[in-house]
Every structure is written in structure tokens, then in C-alpha cells.
Amino acid sequence: MLAAVDAMEFSVVREALDVSDSVLSKHVRVLQDAQYASVTKVRRRAWLALTPEGRQALAGHIAALRRIVEQAEADR
Fold it and tell me: I need a labelling partner for 6 at 20 to 30 A (CA). Which of 12, 26, 36, 56 fits?
């Protein structure tokens, strides 16, 4: 979800994923610890964003998934 935007409000992500605050917070914390996401608080609202490192990691994961799909299709 964050790849398509500069930033997205925490509550929007929570509602779209249909998870609790605590579940999303735990996942965001893991992404922050890996330096893949940032959280900015503005007037009691939290905004989530991918960092440049997060965008690069996502691109790498997508590339790996594409290779897996290509291999599976070649093996048919």
C-alpha cells in the first residue's frame, strides 16, 4: 500500500488491512527497525511511509517473486 504513495495515514492503512492498532503497530515497528518504513506524527495522527531502503527492498522482493513465477511457468 505504501509503495503507491508518499505517505499514508496509519488509520487508513489499519482500516484497509482490517487489523487492530496493535497488530499494525507491531508490523510497522519491524519495518522501522529494518529501516524500511518511517512514522511521522502530525497533530495526533501518524503517517506511514516507505524509506528509500524500504522501496529498494520491496523492488528486490518483487523481482525475486517474478523470477519464481517465471521459473514455475517454464516448468509447465
Answer: 26
Average pLDDT per 10 consecutive residues for the chain, totaling 76 residues: 97 98 98 98 96 98 97 89
Which pTM does this prediction carry?
A: 0.86
- The total number of residues shown for the chain amounts to 76
| Contacts for 34 with CB less than 8 Å, ≥ 6 apart | 53, 54, 57
- What is the DSSP code string of 19-58? --HHHHHHHHHHHHHTTSEEEEEETTEEEEEE-HHHHHHH
Q: Measured between alpha carbons, how far is 76 from 50 in angstroms, rounded to an integer?
A: 36
Sign of CA dihedral 4, 70, 17, 38: negative
DSSP assignment letter at 2: G
